[in-house]
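Structure ticket #2291
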Amino acid sequence: MVLESHNENFIEKFQQEVAALEEVHECFHMSGSVDFFLKIYVGTLEDYHDFVRYKLSKINNVKTLTSTFILKEIKNNLAYII
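Resolution: structure written out below.
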């Protein structure tokens, strides 16, 4: 997700609004070609469509939204090796 403005107030407001969305399970402020990366969980593509249309698109300051979908999970290990 890319924001229109990187003003501190806009970023803080965006973070608050995203944190309040129950579908958002993780949110990362990024460097590089996107500003924020969201991990969301919904049941169907129609649910995703509704989430984007009725919730995410209502948040001010969002310039670009790019979606990617997991086709198959190969490995999911969250353990850290120390």
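Closing remark: The first strand starts at residue 2 and ends at 3.
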